[in-house]
Amino acid sequence: MQTKVKKSVQTGNVEESALNELFIDELKDIYWAEQHLVKALPKMAKAATSGELRSAIEEHLEETENHVSRLESVFDSIDEKAAAKKCEAMAGLIKEGDEIVSETEEGTFTRDAGIISAAQKIEHYEIASYGTLRTLANVLGYTEAADLLEATLNEEKNADSLLTQIAESGINSSGRNEKE
Q1: What CATH number does residue 167 fall under?
Q2: pTM, to two decimals
Q3: pLDDT 10s digits, 148-171
């Protein structure tokens, strides 16, 4: 991704800085990502074999819907109009998740292990994005935005931990003996 950032002029005006432009660009990117996850997560939940995995994905869908709203509040807090910019990374991660579902047998723990793998890749991308955004918001003096981003970051970390717990509590070992 090549982001064009104009050179910062040393005016002391945060809103005109290159770092602020990067921050807004990254906000637009994750806003697109969260909006598209709202569409992708129900497909992942439906494809899951384990009720525990399905429930975890459905609960995270509710959180993701809140993440979209929270991002709109972040935009409001910095006096920017909420706008999305296609996130190529998330588009690729969602596509990879779709491929895993289509390439694994329905009703298997192997499919669930694949769904967890895809979901954790998504979570790790989001953790990196929200961590960076929170840090940039702090540097730019956007206290309210930083607090909102921190809340989402914590939820993404919790979702990742839950997926690990589900995988390790039986899905991975149950899939070990499944045949192609």
Answers
A1: 1.20.1260.10
A2: 0.89
A3: 999 999 999 999 999 999 999 888
